[in-house]
Amino acid sequence: MKQIEAIIRPEKLEPLKDAFLACKINGMNVRQVLGCGNQHGWIARNRGTSVMINMIPKIEIKIVVADDRVEEIVQVLIDTVRTGEIGDGKIFIKPVEECIRIRTGERGDIAL
Ligand SMILES: Nc1ncnc2c1ncn2[C@@H]1O[C@H](COP(=O)(O)OP(=O)(O)OP(=O)(O)O)[C@@H](O)[C@H]1O
Ligand SMILES: [Mg+2]
After folding, report:
1. Atom of ligand 1 nearest to the CA of 38
2. How many domains does the chain contain in total?
3. Domain residues for 56?
4. Is the shortest distance between the CB of 89 and ligand 1 below 6 Å?
5. What pLDDT, in 10s, does the model give residues 52-106?
6. For 75, how many CA atoms within 13 A lie in the half-sphere containing its CB?
7. CB-based neighbours (< 5 A) of ligand 2, an ion
């Protein structure tokens, strides 16, 4: 099992949710986060003064999938949220040791 963590633009949450539901993922967690990438934010100009805005609102999505679905899900993600502009976000993939469905006690892929 792997956890796919994606940091995306807030306006991409709805389309991504639809795309994920269409390919029958088992569950997801969504959080609002503040973050910055390589540009370290952006410069806002207001009446002649410039202010560095370092932390930009983003959406963090975490889903756990069976190993053999990782590439398919990553491709859906990229196809749905990519604009080609800076700030499109990032995907982190991490190993997940175990999943246990509390109601039944099932473990592993079947519990996803
Ligand atoms: N190395 C990182 N570690 C943790 N979070 C990150 C990292 N890089 C990016 N993020 C998160 O992803 C968000 C979007 O990052 P962003 O797309 O700007 O990355 P980037 O590497 O600067 O790419 P780009 O050049 O396309 O902007 C950030 O606001 C932050 O929340
Ligand atoms: Mg960036």
Report:
1. 22
2. 1
3. 2-111
4. yes
5. 778 999 999 999 999 999 999 999 999 999 999 999 999 999 999 999 999 999 9
6. 6
7. 37-39, 86-87
